[in-house]
Amino acid sequence: MSTEVSSQPLLSVRGLSKAFGGVLAVQGVDFDLAAGEMLALIGPNGAGKSTTFNLINGQLRADAGSVRLQGQELCGLAPRHIWRLGVGRTFQIAETFGSLTVAENVQMALLSRDRRLWSPWRRATHYQRAEALALLQRVGLADQAERPCAALAYGDVKRVELAMAVAHNPCLLLMDEPTAGTAPGERHALMALTRGLAREAGMGVLFTEHSMDVVFGYADRVLVLARGQTVADGAPESVRADARVQALYLGRQAAEPLKAEDAA
Ligand SMILES: Nc1ncnc2c1ncn2[C@@H]1O[C@H](COP(=O)(O)OP(=O)(O)OP(=O)(O)O)[C@@H](O)[C@H]1O
Does the keyword Membrane apply (predicted)? Predict the structure, then answer.
């Protein structure tokens, strides 16, 4: 079943702030994210993107502000609790078990979802195999199920990571530079796949990305941070044309358009 981008916010971030000593890493950031929406969080190095992610998933505690998921406050909750509430994450360098097969990796994620990681089911080989294979089918890896993860091309490892991340059916997925280290063809296939999963499941996706062709090709909305503050938040075309964003990226004049291939 396909779900379009909803008009109701799935995630509402208000006044989010975090300082490290004298460094104001995130300062009063506000944004909403709808179910099924792909929101790119971009900005130069040190803009506060990772800090924002870590505040949302509970790895860091906010100094001020609020992060509400479907109305529930996440600030102050432990990362595991936030994960249980439906916030998944993928990493810049994919985190998979290289010595396990592709299917076993997904089965490990299913064990974790079902709180059985430390039970006799710990040997993943036979656990919820049909469900694991269905997830692999969805990410286009059914024919690789029995291969060790370490033998896969990196773009396929990223697909395994995606299958693992959606195994617990998150309503919000945080993706830290999802296409880092992948070839251009793989990059587009991976983002098209992610967008399909987001639309089908009504899953909101917040992703950081340095590749502007990915940002402008796949984001429904773009949020630009600089020095911890919001510079722009809107549809890709309006953000691309925004004079402050132009100035931030390479110091261009507003009349000179930001090109898809520009890197952050
Ligand atoms: N644990 C920390 N201790 C001290 N300062 C930190 C810490 N984490 C981040 N900072 C600082 O906070 C600011 C924002 O950093 P952050 O990593 O969130 O930026 P970013 O946009 O993710 O950058 P990049 O694109 O380089 O990953 C930077 O000035 C950074 O040096």
Answer: yes
